[in-house]
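Sample intake sheet
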Amino acid sequence: MALSNLVDMELKLNRKPKFELIDIDDIIPNPHNIKKRIRNIVELANNIQEFGLMKPLEVYFDEDKEKYVLLGGERRYTALKILVDGDAYDPDIPCLVYKILDDTSALLQLHMSNAQETFTDDEKVQMTKDLLHALEKNPNLKKKGMPTVDWLSPFLGCSPRTAQKYKNLAEGRLQKRKEKNESSNFQLRTLSHEIEKICDCKIKMTNKSITFKCIDDDDLNRLLEKLGIQSELNKLT
């Protein structure tokens, strides 16, 4: 992923965030955050308590909920909750507050904020599905003529080539190819078993060739006779 693409994307989404101190009770997790597990929270909490919060939380204000919703920093938020609940940290938390115009902007900013986080392949596939759905609703999210994988890669924090893998998985292409291969392999196995019964010998079969295994010349002649090849050879000689 090109750093310039990430910076350009963030500049378009951020709209000059404001720095504010916000009571942690006024901040809620983002329901669209797809990360399944939050690791090493106690270690992070101890680190924050000793050295302070090194990076502000990223939030936006949801007027319907009348709360600030997390865009980035759920690990930090979870660690801070532990500290604040234990009276070990000031509840007024440094935050960057973004101006979010709609649900799509919120989704894009969430994934952009998480671009440098570590996710499992399943989580990346879910992120890709969300992004493709947003793009389907609003094709103007990416420049005209821009490859979709180039648009996806900054959000996923990976190269366009890797983004193509997640796109294929999100669209079910790899699964369909896998199912097709499994069906083809099943047919080959079934056919090879039938041929083995007829020839009474082991064979190795692919979609391009059949290899017969014979013990000796007599076994080979038996097999050729079984296949009707030996009699044809005798006619020629």
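Comment: The first strand starts at residue 18 and ends at 23. Residues 57 and 76 are 7 Å apart (CA to CA).
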